[in-house]
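User: My advisor asked me to double-check a structure prediction for proline dehydrogenase before group meeting. I don't want to rely on an old file, so could you generate it fresh from this sequence?
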Amino acid sequence: MLGPVLLAVSRSDRMRRLVAAAPVTRPVVHRFVAGDDLPTAMDRVRALADAGLEVTLDHLGEDVTDRATAGATRDAYLRLLEALDAEGLGKRAEVSVKLSAFGQALPVGGHDIALENVRQVAAAASAAGTTVTCDMEDHTTVDSTLAVVAELRREHPGTGAVVQSYLFRTEQDCRALAVPGSRVRLVKGAYKEPASVAYQDKREVDRAYVRCLRILMAGGGYPMVGSHDPRMISIARHLAREAGRVAGDYEFQMLYGIRAAEQARLAADGERMRIYVPYGADWYGYFMRRLAERPANLAFFLRSFVPA
Ligand code: FDA
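Assistant: Sure, here is a fresh prediction for proline dehydrogenase from the sequence you gave:
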């Protein structure tokens, strides 16, 4: 019941200021966010790579409303890719971008501004021997984001898309994306969406996830299974085998700080396992979505306000 409330306040500037100012917030945030700056994030990447895990890095930020901040997001990713290249980590780590942080929501020319900014990041990623995956945000952005991915793929075929099983349209999108060379991360979806476009019942979202998995595994693309759900993971492994795929013809992805033991177990079992590692100072929206997903996370956060 609290989930929708948390998702609503995840976009409130007033709550952003209140939560960010609370002195006890930081240790809890750092359970889900790798650090505030690039050097700390690079330490985490090295540690994860040493443990046999792969990484996708997210420089936190979203809903940018001016062109200068969108340019600053692009520059932060260029610095990140430079650092990955300098350490030869391009084979183990890629980057995930939110187009709203690249200017997509700007009222005039937002789509083109975001495309131009992210094009530079995709070029830097290719030069560093790695790839970009475009995260999916709320349903109003899906057409624009998939169009950006299609455009980037012309020059950088490894560019990945994300699809959300809670949206009614997604099975159709999966069919269109399940083609050779296409990298597709399937997730359940983390935004507050209306009943006109998205399933509201968790069981429906799970059933849709399985239908989408089936399409992606049977298709010609590279499925990236973004879920912590043990049932989805076991079904994905079964469908992969049924489709004649071996580990490395698909991969699992989980978020930093969530089910770390399971991440290690899957990697030890021979699966390709990639960890989504967010870093940066603008953690509020990301953090609130993690709290909304699971009451236990919210309880953990609230307990931190109680003096020991
Ligand atoms: P579900 O929420 O049903 O949980 C299943 C089980 O997983 C739980 O019972 C619990 O054990 C564990 N679990 C799940 N969430 C947890 C949490 N926060 N803390 C602790 N345990 C938890 N969304 C989106 O809209 N756009 C995007 O681009 C992305 N990108 C993305 C990348 C990657 C790599 C992942 C893993 C996820 C995303 N997401 C996302 C988020 C996604 O949409 C979804 O909200 C979460 O992954 C939670 O859904 P699950 O599939 O994990 O299952």
